[in-house]
Design a protein that fits this description.
By secondary structure, the protein is mainly alpha-helical. The chain contains 9 helices and no strands.
């Protein structure tokens, strides 16, 4: 039995390039051929790590889907997934995403308590990334009236920026 020589840096890099090319090809085929993209992607977002990562990458790079906005907002509230989820959210056309974000924010604001300062901060990031300025102002206004000093501090920092 012979042992394989370790791959050189250039060979490893070429393998990465080849995999990226294959991914692009498969994304194109999925985009062109699958009718229920929302259903497949929604299931993937609810599945394990690699399914979720692949779905978020697809939604970030290739496809926007307003139907998946509630799930994307939920992932934007999770620090490990927030950056990718926010990029996928901003991929949705602004004229579609802002009104739907307003509906989601209204529902979430009713559920948030003054102890949910982390969620207020994450919502502020989502709304700023989504360029939903009126909604961001509503969130800041709600945070300013809180007895929680952390929320008032978040409101002040967001208002300054």
């Amino acid at each position: 039995m012979t042992s394989r020589q370790p791959l050189r840096a250039e060979e490893l890099w070429q393998a990465c390039v080849d995999a990226q090319e294959q991914l692009g090809h498969h994304h194109f085929r999925f985009f062109q051929q699958v009718r229920d993209k929302s259903g497949v992607l929604s299931a993937a977002l609810s599945a394990g790590y690699w399914q979720r990562a692949a779905a978020l990458a697809f939604l970030t790079d290739v496809h926007d889907d307003l139907d998946l906005l509630p799930q994307l907002v939920d992932f934007a509230m999770m620090p490990a997934w927030a950056a990718q989820a926010c990029r996928a959210i901003t991929n949705i056309p602004r004229e579609q995403r802002v009104p739907r974000l307003g509906e989601l924010l209204a529902a979430h604001l009713d559920q948030l308590t003054d102890e949910d300062d982390d969620y207020y901060a994450l919502w502020a990031e989502v709304l700023a990334d989504a360029e939903a300025w009126t909604l961001l102002a509503q969130l800041v206004s709600a945070a300013r009236t809180s007895p929680n000093l952390l929320l008032r501090d978040i409101a002040a920092r967001v208002a300054e920026s």
